[in-house]
C-alpha cells in the first residue's frame, strides 16, 4: 500500500501544474469584455486563479510528501505532530 | 454511590444538551443569514446593482464571488487564530454578532436609486463581513461541541452541528416562501418591500442565540490548556509551517473536505438550480421538492454521526462520495427526461389555456419590426401543465416581408403527483449523500489536530473545501456547459471529478481509526 501511495504522489505532483494550465487557458479563451456571462468576466477569473494557485501548490506539496513517505504512517498522538 | 453516578450522568447529559443547543442554533442562524443573500440575489441585484453600471456590476461580482472564495478561508484563518488564542466561546460569539449585525444592516441599506453608488459599496462591505464571519463560525462550533463530548459519542454530538447548514437552508427557503406567498410579486420587489423582511428577522434570531451562547462556559479542554499555560502563541505558524501538522491539513483537504464540499453543493444547490433553470419547474414545486427532500434526509446526519462512532468515520464519508460519483448523471438525466416537453406532447391530449398575444412594433434603423409574443398554458388530464412562450418577429421592409422562425420557450413546468414524489425521492437520495459525507466530518477533523491549534487547523481546509471547491460548482458547471453545449449534464463532470480524486486520496491515505483522546 505504501508503494502505491508513493507512486500516486507523482500523479498529485503533476496534476497541480495541469490544473493551473487549464485555468489560465480557460481564462484566455473565455474572457470577453463584451460577453454577459459569468465566464466572460475577467474579475471572476482573476479571483479564481488567485485562490486556486495556492491550492494547486498545496496539491504539489501533498504529492511531494506522499513521494517522501510522509503518509506511510499517520500520527496517532498529538506529540507526533 | 449509584445515585451519585446517576446524577453525574444526568448533569453531563444536561450540559452537553445545552452545549449542542447553543452551538447549533447559532451556526444555523449564520447559515440562514448567508443563504438569504444568495436566494434573494436577483432582487438584491435589481435594488443595489443595476444593469448598465459597470462599477455596480464589478461590486456585484465581488459580493458574490469574493465573499465565498476569498473571504471565507480568510475568515477561517482570522477567527481560527483568535479561537486558539483567546478561546472558542468568545470567538464564535463574535462571529455570530458580526454575521447577525451585517445581515440586519443589509436589510436597512437604501437602494441604488436613493443613495447611488454608496448602496452597492455598503452591501459589498456587509457581504464581505458575512463571509468573514461564516469562515470563523463552523470551526468554533464543531470544536466547542467535540471538546465537551465523550469519546464514544463525539460523532453523534457533533453531527448536530452538521444539520445546521441544511436546516439553515430549510428555514431560509421557508421564510422567503412565507413572505412571498403573503404578498404580490410587485410588493415583494418594491424598494422597501417584502424581500427585506428575511434580513430583519435575522436580528431577532441572532439576539436569542447570543443570549444562549453568553450563558455557556469555555470549552473544558481549552480552559485546561490556558490554566496550564500551554496554549499556542502563534497558531498560524504552528498549523501551517510545522510539516507534521501541515501534512495533516493537506490530507484533510484533499482526502476528505474537497469531496464533501462538491457533494454538498451539487446535491443541495446545483440540484435546486437545475430543477429551476434546466427543467423549468415552477417556483412552488421546485422549492417544495427540495424542502421535502431535506426534511426526510436531515435525520440521517445524526444517524451517520452516530454510526461513525461505531464503525469509524472514513468509510461512511467515502461511501457518500462514491454514491455521488456513480449516480449523479443517471439522477439528473432522469430529471431532464421527465420534464422534456417534447415527450409530453407526443401522443397526449391536452387542453390549451387562454392565449395572450402581445404585439409591439420596434423601429430599428428605419425598419419596422413587428414582434408578436404569445403565452398559453397547456394542461394535461393527469395534472401536468406548462406555459408555452412563443415569439414571432416579422420584419417589414419597403418591399419585402421577412418572418423569422418562432422562438418557443417553456416555463412554469408543473409535474403530476406521481412524478413530483419521485423527484422528492431522488432529491432525498442526493441529500442523503450529503448526510454521509457531512455527518461524521466534524468529529473526523477535530480528531486530526491537537487542541492548541485545532480551531485554526480544521477551519482552513473546511472552508477551502466547501467555499472554494463546493462554491465553484455552478461556475465550472456553466463553463463546461458553454464549452460542450451538446451535453446538458456536462456540468456534473466537475463534482464527479473532484469527488473521484478525493475518494482515491481518502481511501488510500486516510485512516479509519477513531482517536479516542482529543485532550492532547
Q: How would you sum up this structure, described in words?
A:
Chain A is mainly alpha-helical and 81 residues long. Chain A is built from two helices and no strands. Chain A has one domain (2-71). In chain A, helix 1 packs antiparallel against helix 2 (42-67). The radius of gyration of chain A is 18 Å and the shape is elongated. Chain B folds into three domains: 1-231, Up-down Bundle (Growth Hormone, Chain: A); 240-339 and 415-520, MFS general substrate transporter like domains (Growth Hormone, Chain: A), CATH 1.20.1250.20; 343-412. With 520 residues, chain B is α+β, with helices and mostly antiparallel strands. In chain B, helix 6 (118-146) crosses helix 19. The longest helix of chain B has 38 residues, at 2-39. Chain B is built from 21 helices and four strands. The A-B interface holds A 1, 4-5, 8, 12, 15, 26, 30, 37-39, 41, 43-44, 47-48, 50-52, 55, 58-59, 61-62, 65-66, 70-71, 74-81 and B 58, 61-62, 65-66, 69-70, 73, 242-248, 250-251, 253-254, 449-451, 464, 468, 472, 475, 478-479, 482, 501, 504-505, 508-511, 513, 515, 517, 520.
